[in-house]
Hints:
The structure holds 2 protein chains of 2 kinds. Helix content of chain A is about 30%, strand content about 25%. Chain A is built from 11 helices and 14 strands. In chain A, the strands form 3 sheets. In chain A, strands 6-7-8-3-9-10 form a 6-stranded mixed beta sheet, sandwiched between helices. Chain A has a 4-stranded antiparallel beta sheet with strand order 2-1-4-5, covered by helices on one side. In chain A, strands 12-13-11-14 form a 4-stranded antiparallel beta sheet. Chain A is globular. Chain B is an alpha/beta fold. Chain B folds into 3 domains: about 50-155, abc type-2 transporter like domain (abc type-2 transporter like fold, 3-Layer(aba) Sandwich), CATH 3.40.1710.10; about 155-220, no CATH class; about 240-430, no CATH class. Chain B has helices at about 1-15, 20-40, 60-70, 95-100, 135-150, 155-170, 170-190, 190-205, 220, 240-260, 260-270, 270-275, 280-310, 320-345, 350-365, 375-385, 385-400, 405-430; strands at about 50-55, 75-80, 80, 90, 105-110, 125-130, 225-230. In chain B, helix 13 (about 280-310) packs across helix 14 (about 320-345) and helix 17 packs antiparallel against helix 18 (about 405-430). Chain B starts with a helix and ends with a helix. Residues about 190-215 of chain B have low confidence and may be disordered.
Amino acid sequence: MISIKNITKKFPTITALDNISLDINEKELFGLLGPNGAGKSTLMNLLVGYVNADEGEILIDGERISTDNLDIRRKIGLVPQTLALYDDLSAQDNLEIFGSFFNLKKSALKYVVAEKLNMVQLYDRKKDKVKTFSGGMKRRLNLAASLLHDPQIILCDEPTVGVDPQSRNAIFEYLIKLNEQGKTIIYTTHYMEEAERLCSRIAIIDFGKIISTGVIETLLESLPYSQTILINKNHSTEKKTELFQKFGELINEQDKYELKPTNKLKLSEFFASMEENGINYESIEIKKPSLEALFLHLTGRRLRD
Amino acid sequence: MKTILNLIKKDYILFWHDKPAVSLTFLVPIILIYIFGSIFSGGGSPQGIRMAFINNSNASVAKKIETALDTSSSFKIIKSYINDKGKEVKFDTNSVKDFIRRGNASAALIIPEDAYTDTSTSLRLKFYYDPKNAIEMQMIQGLLQQTIMAEIPSVFTASMQRKAESYLGMEKGSSFNRQIASVISKYYNVDTSVILHGMKYSFSDSVGSDSSRKAGNFFSNILQMDKEQLVGANVTSPDATRSVGGWAVMFLLFTITGASTSLFDESKSGVILRILSSPISRVQILWSKYLYNISLGCIQLFVLFFMGYLLFNINIFSNFLNLVLMIIAASAASTAFGMLLAAFCKTAAQASGLGTFLILTMSAVGGAWFPTFILPPFIQIISKLTIVYWAVDGFLKVLWNGYGFMDILPYLGVLIAIAVVVNLVSLWKFKRGTIL
Ligand SMILES: Nc1ncnc2c1ncn2[C@@H]1O[C@H](COP(=O)(O)OP(=O)(O)OP(=O)(O)O)[C@@H](O)[C@H]1O
Ligand SMILES: [Mg+2]
């Protein structure tokens, strides 16, 4: 059980975390969602005792985290946001070095390294230097390097940045498996899709404050509408934005519009209007609202700008 | 063509933003050229070379030489020393030898009681020296001979007279005397430097080889120098032994600076975060870096000295324990220097740029490349503030003088003191820095 109590962390020019409180349960896969600069990595660094907070405290299983509490770190595995690997060394050498920091016995270390390399499907490449790896392979190795001491708590700080869909899926699978094995995981991201796919409970963080926390479904129920309307962009829809805006707030996405309907919207009226204006049904999709919509609703801003 | 110009422009922009590269291209050479320039311009004659001196003779020529030395700006003449009880005592032969052996000066000139008596046919002087430095010894001997020769035309004529008298008999001799005297004085009036040059030749010939006081030259009969090398006479490979320390120390500093700035790479790549999320503290990281650097420095120095042994037969084993102590102290001080750079610089590039600059400057003024005595006096003061100076001199004391533990203690002490003080400063800086 991780208990974050009234944490404030200031940097010279900015308050990165502003009086944050959060409880994370054992064996949970918890999502921490927020835009760039929200303070996610800062919170991760505090959780592992890399830096100390200015105010408040963090307890893990009742034990207080600080830069001086070294032993508690055996329970925690941090997957850093920046690739924390020695580029000029092989995958195997990297893992053996990082494993040695936990004073594993030589035979145990060899075994664990092989196991983790297998897990992230890099065993065949174990002798290759990290700098010859693709972005996705490095990310996988970065994850493996944090799991050598079999931590109970895994802190993933945007572990899929710059990764191809294939590696991303693989990383998701590893994490889901680890969670099933009983590990507590905190997953940090600014991709709402990732949070939606992986986590049951999330906290949304913005400008160092937690603006919402809870089970995703419950959070979405708090929105004033229960579905959004997605409209594919094409020659006929792109000329009709004014028409759509009559039915609610229109968000301009890359290849579609997302319409957040007003409270009183009746779908039958909407579709009738579409028909009148010659927009075919194929362009239209009704969906449950996304976390993106929730973030917009809470902050008035997009999650990713 | 436009494309190529744009590409060139891009390279200049990149170059200009790479401050270490800019400073290595312009600033470092300018400063080093200035240092070298100020050494080798200005007539190239150094000031205030320390030389011990005893005058036991009553002869007027002895007095003249003493006055000339006293007033010469090239020499700083030392006639007394501070004894164990803190009292100032005039040198005698034993104490002056000791003075040289202890490295307090590289040379001593003694004018013995019988240097020049009424019956002498030549001026006899004694010269003790420690050629710990070949350039220095050449300069001292050259300068010394210039000074003495300028004072002895009187000796010269008198000696010639006596010689002629003893060879030719009294009567013939005196007429010969007159003739030769006029010839000689005329000769002098015409061109003194020619004579001096000739004398210099005879003098230099015998430098470094005491046995070879060649009598072949006319002038060497007039001035007889009894030379005795007090230090390093048994050193197997003098030139290599004298220079190995300087080069080793300079490369040591480069190695250590490189190793220390690895902290930047680890910090940049986030590996530091990974290490610190293991059960490892910042202090442990610093200690490990420190010990790693010291041990790497020791290994490097040992290998370099060992190569000196293999290639030049430098005798590293006769005083091995003290050499090891010096190696450790030099590595510790150099590591402190490297860590200081890491603590105060913001990037690896900055650290290596500044490091290169400081190392080259310290090597130049600290005596790694040439002896510090030829530097202007104010730079010599700076020399003593550099790690290079103490390390180079310490290695010289061990390998050249064969000093024991008590005698190298000051060098060990200064180096360790530098290490401790500098480390406290960097520790303080690390605590408020961002690298860790
Ligand atoms: N060492 C530091 N010194 C000064 N400011 C910092 C430092 N680390 C973080 N910050 C600032 O604190 C704020 C939060 O940064 P943080 O890295 O926690 O954000 P984040 O949520 O992880 O963002 P991202 O999604 O881009 O990784 C930012 O404004 C950042 O500039
Ligand atoms: Mg971050």
